[in-house]
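Hey,

Quick one before I head out. I ran the complex with 2-acetamido-2-deoxy-beta-D-glucopyranose overnight. Inputs first:
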Amino acid sequence: MTRINMFSLIGCLLYLLHFAYATLIMNEIVGPDSVESGSTDELILDCDFEANGEEDVVLKWFYNGMEDQIYQWIALNKNAYAMGSLKDLIDPTYKVSDDPNSMMRALRFKDVDSALSGNYTCKVDTADEVKWLTKQVIVYSPATSFQIFLFGVEDQFQGDEVVLCEATNISPRPDFSLHVSGSNGSLDDLELFNPIREEIPNEDDSYNVSIRISFNSSYLEPGTTKFSCLLSIPGTNYSDTRSMEHFVDYEEEPSPFELLNEEYASFNYPSNFTEESPSEDIENGSNRIASVVLLGCTLMFSLLLTM
Ligand SMILES: *[C@@H]1O[C@H](CO)[C@@H](O)[C@H](O)[C@H]1NC(C)=O
Ligand SMILES: *[C@@H]1O[C@H](CO)[C@@H](O)[C@H](O)[C@H]1NC(C)=O
Ligand SMILES: *[C@@H]1O[C@H](CO)[C@@H](O)[C@H](O)[C@H]1NC(C)=O
Ligand SMILES: *[C@@H]1O[C@H](CO)[C@@H](O)[C@H](O)[C@H]1NC(C)=O
Ligand SMILES: *[C@@H]1O[C@H](CO)[C@@H](O)[C@H](O)[C@H]1NC(C)=O
Ligand SMILES: *[C@@H]1O[C@H](CO)[C@@H](O)[C@H](O)[C@H]1NC(C)=O
Ligand SMILES: *[C@@H]1O[C@H](CO)[C@@H](O)[C@H](O)[C@H]1NC(C)=O
C-alpha cells in the first residue's frame, strides 16, 4: 500500500469516528476582543456551538474562571437565567436567533463599561459530553487627558531641563513609554536619563500615569532632539502618541545673539503641544554667519600674532 493510500485510509477512519461520537462541536465565541467603554450600548458574546442529535443540552456562562457562573440555559426551555456577579448587567431575554436549539445561547450586556473586562467561558453539557471555550474581552477607557511638557528650555541656564508626559483616567493599566531620538538617530537607552515613572490607581480602577526625565541640553547631540510618549492598552487597538522637539545649537556656549533673543521669548511655562520649541527659531542664518565671522576674526588675530 502506498503512503498516500494509508493516509487517506486513516483520514477516512477519523472522519467516520467523528460522526459516530463527536456530535458536540464548539466553534467559537463570537464577539469583540476589545471595546471602548461607553462607545456602544450593548455587548453581545455568542457561544457558537453545534449539538447534533445530542440530548439534555445545558449551556452555562462563567466569568473569570469556572467559579462565577453568570448565566444558564437548558435548551429544552424557553427561559434563560442570569446569576452571579454580573447578574444585573445581563439581559436574560435576549434571543440571538429564532432557532429553538440555539436562540438563548448568547450573553447580552445592557451597559458597556470597564466592569465587564475579563474572561468569559461558555460551557456546554450534553448527556455524554462536556466542552467549553473561553474568550477574553477588554473594555477600555481612553485617557481623559494625555500631554507632554518640556520645561526649562527657555532659560539660559542649562541643566534643569525636564520632559514630563502624563495621561489620566485610563483603564485598564496601559503601556506607557518615552522615547528620545537625536539628530543622529534614536538615543536608545532611556535609563541613561534616569526616568521617574509613576502609576497611580484611581478609585474607579483607572490609572494616572506619568514619566519624567531631567537632562542637560548641553549633553544632547547638537541638532533637533525629539521626545515622544507612546500610550497603548495591551490587547486593544488603542494607542496614542504625543511628541515635542527641542533644538540644541551647534555652538558650545550661547551666543550673545541667543541671549538677546531670550529676552523676547515669552516664558510660556509649561510649553504645550506646539511642536516647535521657540529655541528652534533662534537657529537662523544670521546666527551661523555671526559664528563664522567670529571664527574668521580669531584666526586672523592668531595669524597676526605669529607674524
Ligand atoms: C484572562 O485570561 C488571560 C489569558 O489566559 C490571563 O492572562 C488573565 O489573567 C485572565 N484574566 C482574569 C481576570 O482572569
Ligand atoms: C549643564 O552643562 C553645562 C555645560 O556643560 C554646564 O555648564 C552646567 O553646569 C550643566 N548643568 C548642570 C545642572 O549640570
Ligand atoms: C552626531 O552627529 C554630529 C554631527 O554630525 C557628530 O559630530 C557627533 O559625533 C554625532 N554623535 C554621535 C553620538 O554619534
Ligand atoms: C488623576 O488625574 C485626574 C485628572 O487630572 C485627577 O482628577 C485625579 O485626582 C488623579 N488621581 C489621583 C489618584 O491622583
Ligand atoms: C483591531 O482592529 C482590527 C481591524 O479593525 C480588528 O480586526 C481587530 O479585531 C482589532 N483588535 C482588537 C484587539 O480589538
Ligand atoms: C498652547 O499654546 C498656544 C500658542 O502658544 C496657545 O494659544 C494656547 O492657549 C496654549 N494652550 C494651552 C492649553 O496652554
Ligand atoms: C533670522 O534672523 C533675522 C534677523 O534677526 C530675522 O530677520 C529673520 O526673520 C530670521 N529668520 C528666521 C527664519 O527666523
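The mean pLDDT is 81.

Talk tomorrow,
K.
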